[in-house]
């Protein structure tokens, strides 16, 4: 089941999912997948600044998506989530786009006493089980 199915099954109606496929032409790129992610990155450009309670950045072109996510999340009391946040290529975007006043929390499955499946261990070796959350404030 995908996220849309889970939301429907649980009668959650206050969430809007948007899917934007990669294009054959454009200017905006993903560091890991190349061109072209213009409509993907700008998929919520029609939404007002500070209009969302929570924004999760997980998928392609996260460096560019992070900038757009900062624009969209409520300036006070909003939540921004960046999955796989320890990847080196995201550091500059975090430094440039995340306001210093925001409260930062880092979470990882890489903790003592936590038993990981073989598949999880594979992803831990790739740094993928590390997520950063920010709570917005002025």
Question: Can you summarize this structure?
Answer:
This protein is an alpha+beta fold. The chain contains 5 helices and 6 strands.
List keywords for this structure.
single chain, alpha+beta, four-stranded mixed sheet, two-stranded antiparallel ribbon, globular
Topology (SSEs and partners):
Elements: H1 3-9, E1 29-30, E2 34-35, H2 38-41, E3 54-57, H3 62-72, E4 79-83, H4 91-97, E5 103-108, H5 118-125, E6 130-135
Helix pairs in contact: 3-4
Describe the protein:
This protein is an alpha+beta fold. 27% of the residues lie in helices and 18% in strands. The chain has a four-stranded mixed sheet with strand order 3-4-6-5, covered by helices on one side. Strands 1-2 form a two-stranded antiparallel sheet. Strand 1 and strand 2 form a beta hairpin. Helix 3 packs parallel to helix 4 (91-97). The termini are far apart.
